[in-house]
Amino acid sequence: MAMFLDEVQRAGGERRRRGKLGTMARREARWGYAFISLWVVGFLLFYFVPMIASLVFSLFDFQLTAPEEARFVGLENWRRLLFDDPLVWQSLGVTFKFALISLPVGMISAIFLAILLNSKHLIGTSLFRTLFYAPVMVPAVAGVLIWSGFLDPTTGWLNQLIEFITGFDAAGPNGIRWFDDPFLVYIAYTFIGLWAIGNAILYNLASLQGIPTALYEAADIDGANFWTKTVNITLPMITPVIFYNLVLGVIGLMQYFITPYVLNGGSGYPQGQTYYYMIHFFKQSFGFLNMGYGSTIAWFMFIIALGITVLLFGTARYWVYYAAETR
Amino acid sequence: MATISTTQTTRQKDRSLNKQSRTLVMRAAITSLTLVILLLYLLPLGYSVLTSLKSKAQVSDVNAPILPSEAQTYFYEGEEYDVYKIPTAEGEKEWALVQKGRSSSQFVDPQNPEAGLIEWQGRWRTLKPSYQLAFQWSNYPRAFNFINFWRLLGFTLLYAIVTTIAATSSAAIVAYGFSRFRFPFKSVLFIILISTIILPPQVTLVPMYAFFYRIGWVGTWLPLIVPQFFSNAYNVFLLRQYFMTIPTSMEEAARIDGAGPIRTFISVILPQAVPALIAVSLFHFFFAWNDFFGPLIYLAGSAELNPIAVGLFRFNGLYSSEPQLIQAASILTMIIPLLIFFFAQRFFMQGIVVTGEK
Fold it and tell me: Looking at this predicted complex, what is its ipTM?
């Protein structure tokens, strides 16, 4: 992220520097363009044109199965999305509610595990790192199916473990039904998400290793304990990575799809609580092949994701410590 | 004076000893805490492995033991009887239940069948069945065949290998352009490239689907493979970062020897960038192996072309009443990526760290 801002600044500088190009420079530029042309073509074909097309689609009533009947409807799709389709707001609500539970849990777990894996007292560090990362390698569908069995109310191990430890009848007929309860289902999905925090752990770890040891030495002389050092040195110093993980997490959750789709086929069970925004998009676009309205839903998602990202960048200067960057 | 200095050194010794033992305690505490968390974290995997080796009956039996086992039976005079654990005056016995009765039942002792039937007073329903370890290895070949593993594996490998080569080589070419040449609008173009990383793919998906549908590519692998030949921002970014760290001295030497940019790229840059190229290839391979949404929509009508992730999803829909087969199939789908990961993890984890730091 910091690198991104850097690039923006450099772009400004370049514009000032640019003058007439000499023969050598022109030759170099031509080679440069030749090498990146592959990407430029790909960008135009698979990003730029489709994005514009998607916006244009959103102004049409366009069924894929009957393209000749496509007609321009102006902002009708947008009106429907904003005022006439309760599922849009419901699914957005579901997505945000889940994000409010799952993001903090995932991010705090990733920070905690990174601190633990960075501890100088830990024996077998690299083995632990490998094993904590391993679940990321489990294909997402397989991971969801494994957790679905693990959280089974009667035969799953989690309820049996809870019963064993607390004595509470968790695995019995009146036990904990993770996927049937409108609130617990978010906890269950959050558990499943914990198998995907491996990357965040590694980002955090790299950032922890970049903290100058002099800071800790100074704190030791002042007699600071572990907790004080964590709150006053460690956490502030890794805020850039926390910020990066936060932005990636928000963007990822807007596209949250595999878990609910594998568990209930996108039915939203229980009580619509797992009807995520992406499920709504999938059903409209590829279930009903409603290309016009599907594009509208996609663009609305893009606008919201962009809005949140801009908002996060706006808050960054109040809590993200950028002096730590060594560039 | 002498005594004071002695007590001081002992105190210092004490302190250093104290410190040593404290470090030892800290080590034990931190390591065991991490171990406990790791075990909890990987517990679902343990559940999956053990369940995949159980019989269907055992998975649904709440009172069955945790390890894969089967209820013990005993053949007595040509009939098969269940074996139960019976508390007797001489300790617990394992007898086969021959004649069920309300308040007393007839048993036979498998150790000593010649003794004939033994009368036992008590309700047999309160008895616990006797289990013995039994691994249902046959679940794996069954899941393997039901899911049609060879076909899924074939398509998945084809997709993963072709797009890995395409994505890595195209990204290397583009990254070379961005890292070694000066040209107008370079930074602006690079910013656009980076921005596409955080662009939600849905916003381009519908027109692309409509277009591929129009040209008859929906129902084939083409919409999933062809775009990979045009490089992807994430891979370009990673490789460009790596190329920037390669010193230019060797390239200058090559240029003096008359090598053009293409020669330099192939014989100077690529050999020095092998770790980064491996990392990018691994990322892409795992991405392709996991890819679910793309194949789900583009191959919706052609189930026979499905890759492994979608195949597993469909299998779950068909065999949800056979949890042990679902778990066995899940394990099957993760073996290859896990093996590659354990062998190549050094490249892989370094690559991730590079993207995270920037």
Answer: 0.88
